[in-house]
Amino acid sequence: MSISDQTASTAPVSDGGSASRGILGAGISEGLLLKPVRYQWAQDLYDQAVANTWFPNEIQLGEDLADFNRMTAEERHALTFLMSYFNPSELLVNKALAFGVYPYVNTAECHLYLAKQMWEEANHCMSFEYVLETFPIDREAAYSSHVDVPSMAAKEEFEVHFIRRMTEQTLDITTVHGKQEFIRNLVAYNVILEGIWFYSGFMVALSFRQRNLLRNFGSLIDWIVRDESLHLKFGINLILTVLDENPEIATEEFAEEIRQMIIDAVAMEERYNRDLLPNGILGMNAEYINSYVRYLADRRLEELGFGAHFGDANPAKWMATANDTLQLVNFFEATNTSYEVNARQS
């Protein structure tokens, strides 16, 4: 399929006015009317996001305290390390959305979804604060790690680099360069941060429940994963829509740059995971996590139309339902047409 091909499920509805334009735009007066909905996938994701609304205190984390108290020092280190990374990263995603995505899309349904996503990122931040308040975790150590631990700081700097490019430089969304910069930011945040790095951490967090530990904490992570699966779907839909409407930006050089971004992100995550589990815990070590990271990266590459790069099988098949929900699409030759946004995850 050519990227210029369009199907009814993704094609914007033309009303003879601004709706006949593409999804990108920076006009304040654009996107002020919801109907007719131009991108039904965005409206569907918004509707499901609203239906998924939850609050951290609905889960009784205090019931997990006995489990935490009998965990090993390595297990507590892993949990603290995860909180150290997740907590500031959720706020980092919010900045990326507010400054790097929201101002550059011009449809009401996309704005509605992005507003709900930003609320969800705030809710996730408060969820991790809830964990820090409930378990006897050294908050000062948890807060300082994203600066003091080189592997964690490197991941943060990678993401901050893209926010700087979106905010400190003038981004002209009407140019090829500006549109490519918009795509780079989406890949950095939606695909790499939320679609690989977060899911790597989710797997470690949920592995405790596999051993009948921290079951309520596991339920909290389930709810976060449910939100993040929609974030990933929205981001990839948005990437594909921009590419479909602006085929001139999809050069071979740009495609290779995007592919290399994902490959480089895996190396950064591998270093981070060696600090997360320097000595391993029961049933898991850094290489196990990193094999899962490479598996995830291959799935994301395939979802963007690239071939798999690493070739790792999924070592954590119990996580498959949370990660293999995206229809395979092609970054340069196809448009996503049928994401299943109403399939609930348990």
TrEMBL record:
User: What is a GO molecular function of this protein?
Assistant: ribonucleoside-diphosphate reductase activity, thioredoxin disulfide as acceptor
Write down the superkingdom of origin: Bacteria
Q: What class of enzyme is it?
A: oxidoreductase
The record's Gene Ontology biological-process terms are: deoxyribonucleotide biosynthetic process
Name the residues that span the membrane. 186-208
Q: How is the cofactor bound?
A: Binds 2 iron ions per subunit.
Catalytic activity reported: a 2'-deoxyribonucleoside 5'-diphosphate + [thioredoxin]-disulfide + H2O = a ribonucleoside 5'-diphosphate + [thioredoxin]-dithiol
In this chain, Fe cation 1 is annotated as bound at E90, E121, H124
Checking CDD domains in the record gives: RNRR2
Task: State the needed cofactors, names only.
Answer: Fe cation
> What residues does Fe cation 2 bind to?
E121, E194, E228, H231
Return the EC number.
Answer: 1.17.4.1
InterPro entries (alphabetical) = Ferritin-like_SF, RNR-like, RNR_small, RNR_small_fam
Which keywords has UniProt assigned to this entry? Deoxyribonucleotide synthesis, Iron, Membrane, Metal-binding, Oxidoreductase, Transmembrane, Transmembrane helix
* Pfam families (alphabetical): Ribonuc_red_sm (PF00268)
Q: What does this protein do?
A: Provides the precursors necessary for DNA synthesis. Catalyzes the biosynthesis of deoxyribonucleotides from the corresponding ribonucleotides.
What the record says about family reads: Belongs to the ribonucleoside diphosphate reductase small chain family.
The annotated subunit structure for this chain is: Tetramer of two alpha and two beta subunits.
Instruction: Give the PANTHER family listed for this entry.
Output: RIBONUCLEOSIDE-DIPHOSPHATE REDUCTASE SMALL CHAIN, RIBONUCLEOSIDE-DIPHOSPHATE REDUCTASE SUBUNIT M2
Q: What is the protein name given in its UniProt record?
A: Ribonucleoside-diphosphate reductase subunit beta
